[in-house]
Amino acid sequence: MGVTAASAWETRGGPMAPVRRGGSTRRSFVHGFALLAVWLTIASSAIVFTEPAPADVLMLGLIALLPVIGLVALRPALLQMFALWLLVAAGGLIASAQSPDVPHAATHTTVTLFLSLGALVIAAFVARRPHGHTQLILNALLWAASFAAAAGIVGYFDAVPGAFELFTRFGRATGTFKDPNVYGPFLVPALLTTIHLLWSAPPRRMLVPLAMICLLAFGLLLGFSRGAWVNAAMAIGVWGTLAFITARTNRMRLKLILLALVAAAGTLAMLATALQFDAVGRMFSERAALDQSYDLGPEGRFGGHEKAKRLILEHPPGIGAGVFTVVYHTEDVHNVFLSMFLNAGWLGGFSYAMLVVATLVIGLRHAVRAGAAQPLYLVAYAAFLAVALQGWTIDTDHWRHFFLLLGIVWGHVTAGGAEREMQRPAATVCAVRPAISTTPARRATSRSRRRRRGWSCPSSSCASCP
Description:
Number of strands: 4
Number of helices: 17
Distance between the termini: 21 Å
Largest sheet: 2 strands, antiparallel
Shape: globular
Oligomer: single chain
């Protein structure tokens, strides 16, 4: 199930080239340390009790470390992506000058720039070796989300003294986060990863992914975040559709259909069991209602949207981060696109919208390109699409996993020839060809024969060579 930091795939060429001795290949110490640092950075992203979080400090180290040791592939398209973030930052600084609290607004813009720089480095890291590095990141994210979900469950049921005060808020599980509305969506990419592992695993290896799905799904439920529930439904639906279209065989498609039926039955069973607890039943009934008191009226969420729209038209340069909540409304905008226009003016708002739309469109085109990294890419793309669309109902501009998923998507899109298999067109429902010559058993036999004969492929990018 996934990989650990110590078993991540090596990178060929440059300062990070594996050391060859006696015909064997081993990773250099610096290379292994860098991969471990990446894993720890992502794994610690679930701990957000304070700002800055531990992951922010570690990410600052990665931003300096990975480019220096050559463990990135900085493509021109990545610089174009980052240029849009620079426009967002420029708009934010211009808007900060209009703010009554310039230091706060400028700090908010600086944090956005820092997170976008981290996304650039992650994208370049993924572009260096799409399959292995994405596997490493998703593995770390899976462990992080599992830890957060376990903490949320323990806290909600007060299984350990003091856990309820530490891991819940407003009667809702928050895990190791400060806000249940951030905790829930953070679990979704990991939930998708476990579903992918369950779908692709042989029957004898399905127990662990199944157990982790139950853990993450139950933790997601106890967060009682309507946005997180919709996020999960969208992500699973998009992933399932893309996985069905790009599956290599009809047998895998049939397995996906059966998995969907079992998942639906399992979800109903989980709900029926959870609702037996009175506290869960009351909170679920309250949170499942479409109309919430804080959504309605001129001071509610939707009233805030109307105020934000008027302010955007009246202030093209923006008003600065934090001003809307302090001066014009009782709470945040709860719409990241409107927030960007307020915090960074028309310049930053249009740049952010352009970046998100471009990522979704270009990413969808890349989703149908077959290759070794495609299954993991579909997980990241579906999760990114869901969190991007959730931005219509909540401010996601500083969600760390949004920037992480953005980096993964752009890393795959710009990888180019990093993996030769990615140049092959995807198999569709109407064009399924059994790939007998590329089955794992056949490839393993072919590799062992080449090793015995002492033959090695001269191409450094051949995905089928040892």
